[in-house]
Amino acid sequence: MEEGATAAAYLPDDVVVDILARLPAKSLCRFKCVSRRWRALISERCSSAQTLSGFFFTSRAPAWRFTGLPSSSVTPPPGGAGGLPPVVDAALSFLPPSCVEREIEMLDSCNGLLLLLCSDECPCRPPPAFYVVCNPATGEWVALPQPKYTPGDQTWCWDFEGDRVITWYAAVGFDPAISSHFYVFQVVEAEYNTHHCLEAVEIYSSETGTWVLSKKGRDDGGFNFMYHMTYFNGSLHLTTDSDAVASVDAKGRPWRITHVLGREGADDHRRCGRRGYIGHSRGRLLYLDDVRKDDVMSIYVLEDEDSGEWTLMRRVSKKDLLFEPWKHVLKPTYYKAGFHPNGDLIFFYDRTRARLISYDWSRGDWHVVCTLTDFEHAHRAFFPYVPWYSGGLASPNSN
């Protein structure tokens, strides 16, 4: 060991960094013991990797894949040497048999954590589906207790005066700069004559280990959830079929409804063709307003959280991005993949040409990142991944 440690001490920093960039997180922790210099290099690498490293996306087989981002396609570049993204166990091979032996669906990602739904192909067969939160960088995972409404299900229930309660969507919220604890949000919709209306959100806290039900206020109005959501500043922000954004506080405070286009947006006759996308970048909440038949998309920023006013920041021409018009409302020709958390970039998937592209709205130009020929359609198809190497998954017993 002494001979190996002595030899390692003479390796140049760039060689050491190149070696470390190819190691999984658990091996990195062991190599911190080699020397103080190696400990410093590993700590620097873990710190620099806290930016967008790539995307998990839905595919045919397996159910998801991962594509890393080369340093030339993002600003700033991801951690790792020579422009290589950090090593990612995209297959999630660390998951236990209780998950692997069942059907696994990826539901969301947030600051290094993934939210999965584990279920049987036959939902009537016990045990019921359950949520798992995991960290691909460290191989840690935790299965959550059951919420009030069965995950990934539609059941006959009259709790909201509708025919059925639907729980097809959920999100994970995690901000390591604020707390080591995470939240899981289960979206609860009610079916009214074949129409799905957003009614409530069940919230799990890793601090308490329990679920609480947060219902929409009586004066919040009725709207349909449109699949996209993001966790930011302690709340889950959800898009609707109008321009309204529903913000659900993780602590269970009353919902907040803001209108990107003002109150008149709720009565826009084009609302059935609106496909808004929400995310955040540089500490700001962003909303991409996209009406299917329009030639442009508009990016809005929530400048003032107290007033709830959104400000138009940029317009994006679909023709400049070479997007083909939609031929069918249920078959989009392009998808929003995500905002870059540290740069003026938004990523799109051009389904016609099977390519992932990045658009820089400050410069007005775009670049092809890679091709994705095995992409499979889903309402939530892309999950931005920011690796998190520090700390473990918090539980009710951790401080």
Automatic annotation (TrEMBL):
A Pfam family: F-box
Domain F-box span(s) in chain numbering: 5-52
Xref: Gene3D superfamilies: 1.20.1280.50
InterPro entries membership: At3g26010-like (IPR055290), Beta-prop_At3g26010-like (IPR056592), F-box-like_dom_sf (IPR036047), F-box_dom (IPR001810), Gal_Oxase/kelch_b-propeller (IPR011043)
Domain of life: Eukaryota
Protein name: F-box domain-containing protein
Organism, as annotated: Panicum virgatum (Blackwell switchgrass)
